Amino acid sequence: MLHAQSRTSNPGSGSFPTGFLWGAATSSFQIEGAWQEDGKGESIWDTFCHTPNHVHEGHTGNLACDHYHRYAEDLDLIAALGLQAYRFSVSWPRIQPTGRGKALDKGLDFYERIVDGCLERGIEPCLTIFHWDLPQSLEDQGGWLCRDTAKAMGDLAEILALRIGNRVKKWMPINEGPCIVDLGYRQGVFAPGRKESEQLVRQARHTVLLAHGYASRALRDILGREKLEIGFAHNPWSTLPASNAPEDIEWARQLFVQNNSWWLDPLWKGAYPAAEWEKCGDDVPQIHPGDLELIGDKPDFLGLNLYFGDYASPNQNEGKPWRRTDSPKTDFDWPVEPDIMYWTPKFCQEGWNPAAQYITENGCAWETGGLNDQHRIAYFREHLRSLARACEDGVPMKGYFAWSFLDNFEWAQGYSKRFGLVHVDFETQVRTPKASAKWYSQVIAENGVFDSGEGIVLN
Ligand code: GCO
Question: Does 179 sit in the ligand 1 pocket, CB within 6 Å?
Answer without folding.
Answer: yes
